[in-house]
Amino acid sequence: MVVLSFVFLLCIFDSSLTISQSLNDVIFNNGYEFFDLSHPFDKDTVYWPETQVFNFTKKIENNGINGTWYAANDFAAGEHGGTHIDAPYHFHKEGLHVGEIPLEKLIVTLIIVDVSSIANNDPNFVLHKHHLDNVLYFDLNKPSVVIFKFGWSKYFNDRKKYLGLNEYDNTLNFPGLSEGVAEWITTTYKTVVGIGVDVASVDTGSSKTFPVHKATSKAGLYNLENVNLNQQIPDTGCTALVMPMKIALGTGAPLRLVAICPKQTPNKF
Ligand SMILES: [Zn+2]
C-alpha cells in the first residue's frame, strides 16, 4: 500500500512519466525518412578472400497442383561478407557472440563521420586521430554507433577495385582506421557500442595484425563492415537499427542496417 501510494504520487508530480506519444506516432508523422544502409546479398556480394561467398540456389518455383504458386530457395554464406556485423567474439575469446548482443546495443544513435574528402580515393589511406581533431567531439550521451565514410561504397560492384586486390603479391589495399583511433574511441567514448565502415574491414586492407578489430572486440564493441553509404544521409540526428541475422554462436552475421532520420527541411534562403 505504501509502495502503491508512492508510485501514485510520482505519477502526479513527475510529468516525464506521462507517455503522450507512441513511437509510431512519432516516426509515421511524415517528419522522418528511412534509409537502407545494406548492400543486397546476391552473386556479386563482396566476401573476404577464402570465405564462402553468397550461394543462392533456386529450389522450387512453380505453379504446382491446382495452380498454387510456390517458391522457396536455399542459401549458404560465410559470416563475414557483404554488409555484416563482427561480434566481439570475432577477436576476443570472452566477447559476446552475435546472438548475445542485446537490443539496447543494436537500436542506437547513428553518427556518420565523413572522411571521404581526406581519404581522397587513396586505397592506402589510414585514418589517424589528428584527422578527426575537429570532427569527433559530439555530445555522445546516448548509446551510439559511429560509422566512418571513406567514400568506398561506389566501388562495391567492382570486387577487385573495392578490395584493392593486387594479383602480383596477393595483397588487399583499401582504407581503414589506425590503432590509435580505435584506442581513442574505446577509451574516450564509453557510450559508443560499435563502429562501422564503408569498406571491407575496420582495419586497413593491408593489415596483417588487425589492431582495430582487437581493440574494439576487447572493449566489447561490434564492427559493421561494408556499410552501404551510396546515398545522402544526415551525419547526425538519425537512429540506427542494427539488425543482424540472429546466429546464436556467430562471430559475425549478415546485417540489415537501417537509419531513421528526420526529414531534411529545404533551406528557405
Ligand atoms: Zn567481419
Description:
- The structure is a single chain.
- The protein is α/β, with parallel strands linked by helices and 269 residues long.
- The protein has 6 helices and 12 strands.
- The protein has one domain: Putative cyclase (Glucose Oxidase, domain 1).
- Strands 4-10-9-7-5-11-12 form a 7-stranded mixed β-barrel. A two-stranded antiparallel ribbon has the order 2-3.
- The longest helix has 12 residues.
- The radius of gyration is 21 Å and the shape is globular.
- 34% of the residues are buried.
- The N terminus is likely disordered.
**Count of DSSP helices?**
6
Strand order within the widest beta sheet: 4-10-9-7-5-11-12
At the fourth level of CATH, the homologous superfamily is Putative cyclase
How much is the average pLDDT?
Answer: 90
- Architecture in CATH? 3-Layer(bba) Sandwich
Radius of gyration: 21 Å
Distance between the termini: 60 Å
Strand coverage percent: 25-35%
User: What overall geometry do the principal axes of the alpha carbons give?
Assistant: globular
Outline the low-pLDDT stretches: 1-17
Name the hetero compounds present. zinc ion
Tell me the number of strands.
12
Helix content bin? 10-25%
